[in-house]
Amino acid sequence: MQHYSILDLSPIPEGGSAADAFATSAALAQAAEAAGYHRYWLAEHHNMPGIASAATPLVIAHVAAATRHIRVGAGGMMLPNHAPLVVAEQFGTLATLYPGRIDLGLGRAPGTDMATARALRRHMAPEDSFPQDVVELISYLGTPDPAATVRAIPGTGTHVPVWILGSSLYGAQLAAYLGLPYAFASHFAPDYLADAIRTYRATFRPSEWLETPYFMMAMGAFGAETDEEAQYLRSSQLLAFARLRTGRPGPLPRPRYDLSEVPPAVMQQVRHALSVSATGSPETLRRQFAQVIAQYRPDEVILAGAIHDPSARIRSHQICAQVLAEYVAPQAQAS
Hints:
Elements: E1 3-8, H1 18-35, E2 39-42, H2 56-66, E3 71-78, H3 84-97, E4 102-107, H4 114-121, H5 130-141, E5 162-166, H6 169-178, E6 182-184, H7 193-203, E7 215-223, H8 227-245, H9 264-273, E8 277-280, H10 282-296, E9 300-304, H11 310-324, H12 330-333
Parallel strand pairs: 1-2, 1-9, 2-3, 3-4, 4-5, 5-6, 6-7, 7-8, 7-9
């Protein structure tokens, strides 16, 4: 494995505000930089009362300004919501402000409900133009073409690294065809993980951007001094996901030991969806990370762990970093 990273949705805590979420994201990014994390990604979601990262490029700028060298990017931008030129201009601007530090992960889903998707796009195109939009966007960020009628300014010539994100085989196939790095959302959609990895690696075509496949998998991660404390901290995410599944989204709940508000059938679904996860003390995390890394052989893992208390969240990621550093190749640690 080469790197370990963090995926953040800037969760709005129960009893807190979006301003609190942004402050926590900046503080966590600073701690992540000190702990050796490679990149810090933020995700686009809309109309979600518990997620503050809707205007993803702005939050990326906020985090990049608070840090010095950690890569910062989108995990991801939901491309169907945006014109490729606009995204190229936004990330070209970020890359100009923070050179060598910006990533652009692209997703095919709207990242919200259909009513909000209509409000974002104003119209719903019947055809799937995602592959063409990805290629168009990459062209705006590539080597300047003097003959081009339309250019992204800033953007052209910045060569912002573009990733394909996915939770099914579609993204794996597209990333392999285009020769791009691929990130799989196994932290909430584990069912196609193994098939997606095989498909991506088996069908990858070298490109001007990438000579060999590069696969990153997302997973939940909750570290603490004891297993019991880690499970307690994770209860916030279990509750949040259960409430989302039952049509009651809200701020990130405070942790609790009693989860009886969630019907057993719903909790079974939630635990399955969030099953690609490492939760516990350093010793427990070491066993769980080792199993995942041995089974899937990711080039990189990106950790998603929504914890209500900011200090406990920082401590969790510090513990996870100490464990994951054992699995990173020495040459990667030096890069």
